Amino acid sequence: MKIYSAAQIYEAINTTIEKNQITSNDLMEFAGTQVFNWFHTRMQGAQVPIHIYCGIGNNGGLGLVLGRQLLHHGYNVHVYVVNFSDKRTKDFLINYDRIKEFKIWPRLLSSGEEFPKMAKEDIIVDAIFGIGLNRETSDWVKDLIKYINASEAYTVSLDVPSGLYPNHAPEDKEAVIESNYTLTGQAPKLSFFLPETGVYMQQWEAIDVGLDQEYLQKTDTEVQLIDKFEVLPLYIPREKYAHKGTYGHSLIVGGSYGKMGAVTLASSACLRVGTGLITAYIPECGYAILQTSLPEAMVICDEREKHIAKIQYDIEPKAIGMGVGMGTDAATVKALKAFLKTNKNRLIVDADALNIFATNKTMLKSVPKGSILTPHPKELERLIGEWTDDFDKLEKAKAFAKKYDVILIIKGAHTITIYDNHLYINNTGNPGMATAGSGDVLTGMLTGLVSQEYDPIKAAIFGVYLHGKAGDLALSGLGYQALTASDIVAHIGAAYLDLFKEPEKPSAEAKK
Ligand SMILES: NC(=O)C1=CN([C@@H]2O[C@H](COP(=O)(O)OP(=O)(O)OC[C@H]3O[C@@H](n4cnc5c(N)ncnc54)[C@H](O)[C@@H]3O)[C@@H](O)[C@H]2O)[C@@H](O)CC1
Ligand SMILES: [K+]
Q1: Residue 485: DSSP 8-state
Q2: Ligand 1 pocket: which residues have CB below 6 Å?
Q3: Predicted ipTM?
Q4: CATH assignment of 250-497?
Q5: Which of 132, 122, 190, 121 is nearest to 158 (CA)?
Q6: Nearest ligand (C-alpha, residue 133)
Q7: Which DSSP helix (H) or strand (E) runs through 194?
Q8: Residue closest by Cα to atom 26 of ligand 1
Q9: Given strand 77-82, what is the order of strands in its sheet?
Q10: Where does (6S)-NADPHX bind (predicted)?
Q11: For the chain, is the Cβ count within 10 Å smaller at the N or the C terminus?
């Protein structure tokens, strides 16, 4: 799913108006009607008090259309205008007049006013600010937002939770609506998926607000949300006459005394994702561990007992997963440096290999183009330096990926893959996956996919999706706390099968 920038949404609005020869208010009426239908379907006339807080821009205008339509259908509605500026938009004013047709004079809220009384059981509609928020709000508006949050009433935000900017984090973390449900126009916004700003919403849903389909389809976006629909075309089917050589030889280089589990997990994930052959290159101490825990894997041992000191082998891998459990011993750093001088293979770089690169930045220049780096936030900071907020982090990460011509996977709740100035936001996975070894599993999966001739960027997008999906499928019967990295590996097969599952048909009951 495409994620449009605020500028693109405004352009889509203008294109729609021009092409269809309608007014901006016609479009607002359509959008407001769609939002009304959403409420009406769920509320079926219930008389729960609905408090609509409208700003003075078009987000507020949308709130007024919704209010008028709810009143028209007999709902119990209270409308307030958050009067933070006298620069009311044209369409706000049209709808401000129209709601008065219902003998309703919205209460104007301004500085020093007492805020409306509300009960916990009421419903709040937040139409204060949309994507037009461009500066810090006045203190009294911040107080109102905090007051709304403190009410604990179910809050539905229109377009975005008010207080969120399209391209930077809020100055005051408490002055943003904590929305239970965000009904967003046409497509979700980038801020919904970043750790600092995604916390303001529990659930979102995109509503078709009638923007021009041709514009939406033709317009390339920098950001995409990745779900099943996006990854299905990436899948490479297995051939009937294939043999294990067809699907590549993967090499996992890593491990040190006390950290052999990381290599075992990465290697087994690599196998499960479909690599033809797997070899683990490890220090001597891991030999019995690997051969016992994973009989399918071949093992090459380093001459050293407890850590890798020389990366040398006589196989021809298609892809190399580098760094899991490897440690940062001086001898290992030296070995990695020497290896990079001759290596032409694409790498999937993780964990300690990333930490080694972070303190030896010149080594990054020897990483083959199209390699994949998979840092978690702390490792990322070591690579790209500190950032001011999540949006700044993405800019810095994009610049880094471009400079070294690599694919950067920022691991987190919504893992983001960055390549060639594009961001691919993953939509699978769950908090149970924040567990030891989960990253090692991803490294193994990515290595296995690149070995099977997946183009590296496709391997990254597909692998991250599949990893998250395996984690989601593993949840059943376990829950977040009990989920382990091995459970993710065990569900890779189910994640593949899920790709081809038909969506569930509505039951006879639901059809009535
Ligand atoms: N016009 C239409 O037909 C449609 C409108 N839509 C709605 O329109 C919204 C965008 O509307 P606007 O561009 O009017 O923006 P908003 O309603 O988000 O912003 C409010 C207005 O206040 C001003 N402002 C921003 N920050 C302020 C601050 N801190 N203090 C005081 N004033 C401030 C802005 O200049 C803007 O005019 C979308 O988010 C969406 O909800 C969409 O639903 C699509 C259809
Ligand atoms: K809003």
Answers
A1: H
A2: 13, 24, 27-28, 31, 55, 57-60, 62, 84-85, 89, 91, 129-137, 158-159, 185, 209
A3: 0.96
A4: 3.40.1190.20
A5: 132
A6: 1
A7: none
A8: 133
A9: 107-109, 77-82, 50-54, 123-127, 154-158, 179-185, 201-207
A10: 58-62, 130-136, 159, 262, 325, 376, 440
A11: C
Structure tokens at 434: 């924040």
Q: Looking at 152-247, which runs of residues are DSSP E strands?
A: 154-158, 179-185, 201-207, 223-226
For the record, the structure tokens of 53 come out as: 């807080």
Q: What is the distance in A from the centroid of ligand 2 to the CA of 216?
A: 22
Going by alpha carbons, the residue nearest to atom 29 of ligand 1 is 137
Q: Which residues contact 336 (CB under 8 A, 6 or more apart)?
A: 311, 322, 353, 356, 363
In this structure, CATH architecture of domain 2-221? 3-Layer(aba) Sandwich (3.40)
Q: Which atom of ligand 1 is nearest to the CA of 27?
A: 3
DSSP state, 285? G
Output the tens digit of pLDDT for each of the chain's 512 residues. Answer: 999 999 999 999 999 999 999 999 999 999 999 999 999 999 999 999 999 999 999 999 999 999 999 999 999 999 999 999 999 999 999 999 999 887 888 999 999 889 999 999 999 999 999 999 999 999 999 999 999 999 999 999 999 999 999 999 999 999 999 999 999 999 999 999 999 999 999 999 999 999 999 999 999 999 999 999 999 999 999 888 877 778 999 999 999 999 999 999 999 999 999 999 999 999 999 999 999 999 999 999 999 999 999 999 999 999 999 999 999 999 999 999 999 999 999 999 999 999 999 999 999 999 999 999 999 999 999 999 999 999 999 999 999 999 999 999 999 999 999 999 999 999 999 999 999 999 999 999 999 999 999 999 999 999 999 999 999 999 998 999 999 999 999 999 999 999 999 876 655 544 44
Please say whether the dihedral angle defined by the alpha carbons of residues 178, 182, 185 and 188, taken in this order, is positive or negative.
positive
Q: Which atom belonging to ligand 1 lies closest to the Cα atom of 137?
A: 29
Ligand 2: centre distance to CA 424 (Å): 25
Contact by Cβ (8 Å): 238, 248: no
Q: Which alpha helices (H) appear in 260-316, and where do they start and end?
A: 260-272, 287-293
DSSP secondary-structure letter at 130?
Answer: -
Residues 324 and 350 sit within 8 Å (Cβ to Cβ): yes
Q: Which of 385, 489, 392, 495 is nearest to 433 (CA)?
A: 489
